């Protein structure tokens, strides 16, 4: 089992004081402006990254934080407050949210976007590996669902990703043991599956947030207060 999803070796330098004070707000503003004008995400990020001399990891961070004003307004309009989740069914973007919470529990850098959603810098590369924080992350989610009286939880995982079947088994056994009303499924395209459902989506994927009928921001409640590795714009 991997140690954790914590910071990489140069992250303190890459996202330290200079990045925070001199680059990030301007870079996110510029990229968001380009997105609002209809420029593509990749080309906008490349242009802004070149201007501010950002490496690939820094560019990934500002990409997660940037959003057009139109997108920000839409996502805010469709967001359901966690206080209103009693008796509802949530459909979870499984790896997206699980890895994000694992990263927080590992004290990795996390980035809060203009839309209020949180993103990390982890990449699956076709394979998911549990880490030391996986069990704790599942427990934290379970406590949240119980606290806010969620009726049912549907976890959706990428079927093509290696070990997604193991995660399905892990969550199913955990739910059965605890008596939780969880359904765990694998889909070839979980994003489209989530968007087509009538349930409240839980994801930080921009495409999902733009297409889903409604969503809720669980991580906003679960992230520790004064989390030292949270970067905001």
Please explain how this structure is put together:
There is one protein chain. The protein contains 11 helices and 7 strands. The protein is 48% helix and 12% strand. Strand 4 (152-158), helix 8 (164-178) and strand 5 (182-187) form a beta-alpha-beta unit. The chain has helices spanning 11-14, 17-36, 41-51, 56-65, 69-78, 94-105, 134-147, 164-178, 190-196, 206-211, 219-222; strands at residues 89-93, 110-112, 118-119, 152-158, 182-187, 200-202, 230-232. The mean pLDDT is 93. The strands form 2 sheets. It has a 4-stranded parallel β-sheet with strand order 5-4-1-6, with helices on both faces. Helix 3 (41-51) crosses helix 4 (56-65) and helix 6 packs across helix 7. It folds into 2 domains: 11-66; 75-232, 3-Layer(aba) Sandwich (Rossmann fold), CATH 3.40.50. It has 233 residues and is an alpha/beta fold.
Entry keywords:
alpha/beta, Rossmann fold, 2 domains, four-stranded parallel β-sheet, three-stranded mixed β-sheet, 7 strands, globular
Give a concise summary.
The protein has helices spanning 11-14, 17-36, 41-51, 56-65, 69-78, 94-105, 134-147, 164-178, 190-196, 206-211, 219-222; strands at residues 89-93, 110-112, 118-119, 152-158, 182-187, 200-202, 230-232. The chain is an alpha/beta fold and 233 residues long.
CATH architecture of the largest domain: 3-Layer(aba) Sandwich
The topology string of helices and strands comes to HHHHHEHEEHEHEHEHHE
Structural class: alpha/beta
Residue share in β-strands: 5-15%
- Per the CATH scheme, the topology name of the largest domain is Rossmann fold
Class of the largest domain, according to the CATH hierarchy? Alpha Beta
Question: What is the helix content?
Answer: 40-55%
The chain-level mean pLDDT equals: 93
Number of strands: 7
Outline = globular
How many structurally independent domains? 2
| Poorly predicted parts | none
Radius of gyration: 18 Å
């Amino acid at each position: 089992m991997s140690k954790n999803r914590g910071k990489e070796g140069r992250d303190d330098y890459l996202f330290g004081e200079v990045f925070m004070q001199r680059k990030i707000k301007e870079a996110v503003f510029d990229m968001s402006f380009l997105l609002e004008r209809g420029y593509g995400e990749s080309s906008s990020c490349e242009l802004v990254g070149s201007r501010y001399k950002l490496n690939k990891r820094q560019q990934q961070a500002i990409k997660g934080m940037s959003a057009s004003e139109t997108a920000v307004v839409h996502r805010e309009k469709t967001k359901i407050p966690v206080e209103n989740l009693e008796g509802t069914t949530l459909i979870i973007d499984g790896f997206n949210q699980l890895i994000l919470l694992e990263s927080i529990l590992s004290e990795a850098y996390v980035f809060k976007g203009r839309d209020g959603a949180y993103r990390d810098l982890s990449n699956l590369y076709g394979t998911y590996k549990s880490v030391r924080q996986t069990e704790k992350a599942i427990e934290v989610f379970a406590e949240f669902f119980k606290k806010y009286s969620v009726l049912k939880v549907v976890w959706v995982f990428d079927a093509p990703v290696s070990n997604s079947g193991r995660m399905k088994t892990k969550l199913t056994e955990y739910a059965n043991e605890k008596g939780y009303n969880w359904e765990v499924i694998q889909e070839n395209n979980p994003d489209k599956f989530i968007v087509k459902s009538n349930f409240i989506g839980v994801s930080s994927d921009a495409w999902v947030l733009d297409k889903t009928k409604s969503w809720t921001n669980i991580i906003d409640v679960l992230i520790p207060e004064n989390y030292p590795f949270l970067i905001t714009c």
